[in-house]
Amino acid sequence: MPYVVTESCIKCKYMDCCEVCPVDCFYEGENMLVINPDECIDCGVCEPECPAEAIIPDSDSSEKWLSLNEEYAAKWPNIVRKGVPPEDGEKFQNVENKFSKFFSEKPGNSTEE
Q1: What values do phi and psi take at 99, rounded to 5?
Q2: Domain-embedded: residue 72
């Protein structure tokens, strides 16, 4: 049961989660992160680290999020250290339908803190 990143991460992208991951299974897009479900060891240490509550077990998510995490983990760069989160991230934390409004297929390029 790997964990997946969901819509709540879009435009928030706090990145606290990637620093605690023991297997470095996070990948960075322009405005969200994803987890490679084949690399995730289901330890769950990332879930409580996410201020946006965007990380959930794949069994609690729709197939859409598992597929999206799998697809973009293969396309985006690996991220192992927290970068600089978006300055306006908190503003987007409770916005609905973020995927249809804001999702970007572009890879990320964080500047580490």
Answers
A1: -60, -50
A2: yes
The CATH number that applies at residue 12 is: 3.30.70.20
Neighbours of 69 (CB within 10 A): 26
Residue 91 has pLDDT above 80, yes or no: yes
106 assigned to some structural domain: no
Question: Tokens representing 20?
Answer: 């605690």
Distance CA(35)–CA(38), nearest Å, equals 9
What is the DSSP code (8-state) at residue 72? H
DSSP SS3 for 69: helix
Q: State pLDDT tens for residues 49-65.
A: 999 999 999 999 888 99
Residue among 99, 88, 111, 94 at smallest CA distance from 34: 99
Which residue has tokens 């084949």?
Answer: 38
Instruction: Point out which residues pair with 5 in neighbouring strands.
Output: 55
pLDDT (tens digit per residue) in 13-38: 999 999 999 999 999 999 999 999 99
Q: For residue 20, what are the domain limits?
A: 3-85
**Quick check: pTM over 0.90?**
yes
